Amino acid sequence: MTAYLRPATLAEAVTARREHPDYVVLAGGTDLLVGAARRPPPPGILDVLGLAEATGIRHDEDGTLVIGGMTTYLALLESEVIAAELPMLRACAREIGALQIQARGTVAGNIATSSPVGDTLPVWLALDATVELVSASGSRRVPYGELITGYRKTQLGADELITAVRVPPREPGWAQHWRKVGTRRAQSISKVMLAAAAHVTGGVIRDVRLAFGAVADRPVRARAAEAAICGQAVGAGAVAAVRAALAGDITPIDDVRSSADYRLRVAQNLAARFIAQL
Amino acid sequence: MRPPGQTAVGFSLPRVDGVAKVTGRARYVDDITVAGMMHGATVRSDVGHGILRAIHRDPAFDWTGVTVATAADIPGQNVIALIEPDQPALVAIGNTIRHPDEAVALVCAPTRARALAAAAHVRLEIEPLPLVLSVEASLHLKQVLHGDDNIFARFEVKKGAGTSAAGIDAALAAADIVIEGTYETGAQEQMYIEPQGMIAIPGDGGIHIIGSLQCPYYVHKAMVALLGLPGDKVVIQQSVTGGGFGGKEEYPSMIAAHAAILSLAAGAPVKLIYDRDEDIGATTKRHPATIHHRMGLLRDGTIVAQDVDVIIDGGAYVTLSPVVLSRAVLHAAGPYRCKDVRIVGRAVATNAPPHGAFRGFGAPQTTFAYERQIQKAARAVGMDPVAFRKKNMLRPGDDTATGQVLTESVGSEDVMAAAEKASATPLAPSDDQVRRGRGVAFYFHGAGFTGSGEQRLAGRAQVALTAGGDFEVRSSSTDIGQGTLTIFTQIAAAGLGVEVSCVRVPEPRTDDVPDSGPTVASRTCMVVGGLVDRASRKLRGRIEAWAREHGHGDAPFIAAARAMAAAEGEVTADAQYAPPPGIEWDDKTYTGAAYPVFGWAACVVDVAVDVDTYEVTIERCVHAVDVGKAIHPIIVKGQIEGGTLQALGWGTLENVVYRDGRVANRRMTDCIVPTFADAPEIETILIEKPFSFGPHGAKGVGEIPMDGPAAAVANAIEDALGVAIDEIPAIPERIAIAARGLSFSTEGPHTP
Amino acid sequence: MTIEFRLNGRAATVTASPWRRLLDVLREDLGFTGTKEGCGEGECGACTVLIDGEAVNSCLVAAGQVSGREVTTIEGLGGDALHAVQDALVRFGGTQCGICTPGIALTAARILAREPDADRARIRELCAGNICRCTGYQLIVDAIIDAAGHIKSEEP
Predict the structure, then answer these.
(1) pLDDT at A270
(2) pLDDT at A236 over 50
(3) CA-nearest residue of chain A to B736?
(4) Chain A residue whose CA is closest to C55
(5) Partners of B199 in beta bridges
(6) Rounded CA gap, B386 and A136, in Å?
(7) Strand, coil or helix: what is C146?
(8) Chain A residues close to C18, C-beta within 8 Å
(9) Binding partners of A (≥3 Cβ pairs within 8 A)
(10) Do residues B539 and B474 lie in contact, with contact meaning Cβ atoms separated by under 8 Å?
(11) Read out DSSP for B522-549?
(12) Does B679 contact C133 at a Cβ distance shorter than 8 Å?
């Protein structure tokens, strides 16, 4: 018989996590429960959805935006702070599944699954976000780009819970951009996603992040393309440079949803569009 | 308030099953529980072609309480009786597996979870054979799958010089311009939201089957053959059915067979409900088609010759492919005047799961081809696409490719007038991000069975004055969402001259209702509704005569009817199909009146194509359809809009992906259909050109909206980008390939 | 485990594995068959119920997760009379085969409670998790717009 725990506090939650490493950590269930009826039941469930200390959106003293891991996509959409400071994240949340998935799916759940098509993941890369991991023996902060180690693999420890994503403050003047290309308008799995941010002053691209989803075994930063345009003047030259460099950054595949050829071409178009509009 | 009697027709009363459906009280098959019921599961082949050598049960599994059934447990013939007796219910040991997901064994257990677990512990030993995955490979006879040529069926339509291949070549050679193209259309999943399912209940030396289905008597025929039972020992009952679109025309016989075999083997009722992935993987889809079309034109835009070659992929068994092919061929020259026509169609065997019925039934495939041809033809002669169609379209007095002279209910002028008006609105301009285009399509759809099908079937319907004094309509026509129960209520109320509230239309079960034929082919309202109309009037006459004879002549009709019911018990009136006068069809030469009447339609679609992603947004869709008479305008509108979106989906995003003959995208996540957010606002224009033989002038409407919108959207994409879209679905990946060489916005100046 | 929650405004108790899908517990253990299964993966929305007023896919909720929560199924939407959106779905032809209808009615009820002024485009966005294969959606949107008008006209 499957046990069920719904800890009231984070301390209880991490203790339960340490004591029951074989329990399923369950949040919104939008990934985990797909096909659940056909799988053998787990020994137990550690239900962390709604855990107060890991829910909600606030600022740290240094201006870091702290988004609780149990924050749902719907809560992101309804947040004025997110609308004002992270329009990219708001745009992203709005295109995840549809209402029912948005009402249930969580920031931490998306990170824990770390599917190559996880919609929020490129956003964290583009924002240099850090993930806060807590266990009974302490906590640590890991940049999302380091947390993910492979196809649906992260370095999340067996005793750890994802409590928050921390988005560091940036100086004014950064442009943000989100574009998801899915199989249809809603309830759609991504074929290409671009989360981009750029800092332009005096017509020169001072710094840039180009993060893609669904074009490699994990969400990736296009570092060669970023390097190719960093320090360059905005304009046709940068657009051409980003196109040319991008092919080396991503490794899209053919699958039932799309083709490698299409994904590369569209990734190039999306990056070019972002740069052209700076 | 609701008007009584005659005015019941043409009025959109709340649908009679509406409240049950919005409150969740309607009972679909999976909502029904029977005492002692077990749950079934199907063991399927995972290879597409091979000899079944053995079926093993995993000795490590606990088989307690589990019943396993194989072909050896079938009491009658191991066949799903339909057209040809070639498809087994279960492949027997030593016999050939012909497609992936073919059923080989069955299990049932007290719970669904146990049944699924048991099914996973049945291992099949299969000696593989080479797969035939394309019609090309099949026609080259890489493997012989059927007969000696792999051709399930072949039909030809020949008119004028089209009598011979040389003749049509000469006619085309004499034309000023020849437009030639090859068109590919993909498989399409019906994607009814209720997965298929059946419950079989054994007893009294027979079997009672309840399930989600379109055609009770198809299942009845199949069970009689399979179980070796007399007809009266087999009862098929429809449960409220969550959509069909053709997908529950033939395949329910397979599921009923499996549930019945299990229930007889286990000696208990068995419920067999498909998971979505099983439903997508194993059940029938729209036939993929390859159509080669040549069209000869005069410089002034007159169409003078058409030569069409139609190939449909039938999959592993004959099933309904000959009938689908027939309709494909009969629509392939379109609603256009043309003196010389040659159409050759073939349905070909492959190792794909059998393709089958889906709304439109072959016509959407050939409609896509001819409406793409028409678009190219109009451009070639420098004519506006609407003007070109109007110049060539069939009008009353013209004859079709089979020589059928159109006499009445010809809505071509009206639907094209609507299209012309819709085309007068300026297209929104293109910009840096999207390129916009407009497409038109014009088409017709034969209502009812092809040729002499209705005569052969001779369907019946009955209207009864029950002993309790109510009126009841009895037919085997099912309501699968399209509104049968409601429109039959209206037609009967009008025929009887009573309030609609006096009429009941129960869901059919074969021991209560006559065989009115299947619920297919846009025939329910027009053909069976016509029988209901006649039976109602006959019953009314009988009641009125009785009332006069028995001193109730001055009583209100309802009072007289109740008096008659009290005195005489149940009174019934039957009607049986008789063809309209002058309808002659020759099956040997494929000439004459292919259909009693045609529906007519035109569709105008505006699209925006994103130049970065090649995503297509349908920004506007106007659909004008001649329905004869809208018995229930809202239901008719709902039929048109639903069919339109299925057609737009087929044209743009519904992509069934096969790997080694097996459906690879077998989840709703990947095998997608349009959502609320994908659907455009659809403007429906109803045209009513009455058909004198239809009830109150009505003719078929179920399928015609499926035929043309895919061509309209392809024409619109071509208009937007300047590249031909000859293969659907026009997914962005295909458009990207077609658009290779074009240069957009961030790539540089646009060069269409 | 024993799961205690509120179902359609009444206290409910069910003994079930917390891992079972809420959908199955509602349909099989409690007999609330108005909640339908179309895909079992949160794609079609036929199994939509409201948990604490929010639309969710009951095929993706573990039964244990509803303990202490308020669940509304189609059986509890209207009470004695039809909810305005149920009534409008019947009158406007927003239900055909009906299998998606309970889910759509619940999603629509949630929209009308939270965003009564949603326009057609916004309704389409919010309803996109409920797939209907029959209607082409047009008449459903018409029905929701009409129901919104009725609800507003009844409010003081």
Answers:
(1) 97
(2) yes
(3) A262
(4) A100
(5) B210, B271
(6) 73
(7) helix
(8) 2-4, 45
(9) B, C
(10) no
(11) T-IIIIIHHHHHHHHHHHHHHHHHHHHH
(12) no
Q: Do B645 and C137 touch (CB under 8 A)?
A: yes
**Residue that is written with structure tokens 């919609």 in the block:** A119
* Residue B326 one-letter amino acid: S
How far is the C-alpha of C40 from the C-alpha of B29, rounded, in Å?
A: 17
pLDDT of residue B72: 98
* Between A37 and C35, the higher pLDDT residue: C35
Taken in order A90, A91, A97, A100, is the CA torsion positive or negative?
A: positive
Identify whether the C-beta of residue B364 lies closer than 8 Å to the C-beta of residue B644.
no
Chains that touch C (3 or more CB pairs under 8 A): A, B
- Distance, in angstroms, between C147 CA and closest chain B CA? 14
A112: its two tokens: 């824990």
> Closest to C95 (Cβ–Cβ): which among B18, B643, B667?
B18
Nearest to B613 among A98, A181, A186 (CB): A181
Residues in chain C with CB shorter than 8 Å from the CB of B191 are: 133
The answer to whether the CB of B225 falls within 8 A of the CB of B77 is yes
Reported as a pLDDT band with limits 50, 70 and 90, residue B34 is very high
What is the rounded distance in angstroms from the CA atom of residue B312 to the CA atom of residue B334? Answer: 18
Bridge partner residues of B261 (DSSP): none
Q: What is residue B208's DSSP assignment?
A: E
Q: Say which of A29, A42, A99 has its CB closest to residue C60.
A: A29
Output the CA angle A243-A248-A251, nearest 5 degrees.
105
Amino acid letter, B306: Q
Q: Name the pairing type of β-strands A148-150 and A153-154.
A: antiparallel
The DSSP-derived string for B212-275 is S-S-HHHHHHHHHHHHT--GGGEEEEEPB----TTTTTSHHHHHHHHHHHHHHHHTS-EEEE--
Q: Give me the torsion for CA of B368, B373, B375, B376, rounded to 10°.
A: 140
CB pairs under 8 A between A and C: 97
Chain B residue with minimum CA distance to C79:
B23
Contact C128 A45 (CB under 8 A): no
- In one letter, which amino acid is B447? A
Structure tokens at B530: 């016509």
Amino acid code (one letter) for B172: L
C93 min Cα distance to partner chain A (Å): 24
Question: Could you give the CA distance from residue A81 to residue A65 in angstroms, rounded to a whole number?
Answer: 9
Estimate the crossing angle of helix B385-392 against helix B363-380, to 10 degrees.
Answer: 110
Please tell me what DSSP assigns to residue B746: G
User: Which of C19, C25, C115, C130 to mutate to probe the A interface, most A CBs <10 Å?
Assistant: C19
A125-147 mean pLDDT: 98
Residue B220's φ and ψ, nearest 5 degrees, are -60, -50
Q: Transcribe B3-65 into DSSP letters.
A: PPGGGGTT--PPPTTHHHHHTT-S-BGGG---TT-EEEEEEE-SSSSEEEEEEEE-TTS--TT
Q: Quick check: B736 and A265 CB within 8 A?
A: yes
Residue B698's closest CA among B455, B486, B447, B503? B447
Upper half-sphere CA count for residue B141 (Cβ side, 13 Å): 7
CB pairs under 8 A between A and B: 66
Angstrom distances, CA of residue C82 to CA of C54, C56, C154: 20, 21, 15
Q: Is C84 on the interface with A (CB under 8 A)?
A: no
Helices (H), B351-432: 363-380, 385-392, 412-424
Q: What average pLDDT does range B146-156 have in this prediction?
A: 97
pLDDT value for B579: 87
CB contact under 8 A, B669 and A189: yes
pLDDT of residue B3: 42
Best B12, B17, B21, B271 residue to mutate vs chain C (most C CBs within 10 Å): B21
Average pLDDT over residues B182-201: 98
| Binary contact (C56, A3; C-beta < 8 A) | no
pLDDT, tens digit, 9 for 90 and up, residues C126-146: 999 999 999 999 999 999 999
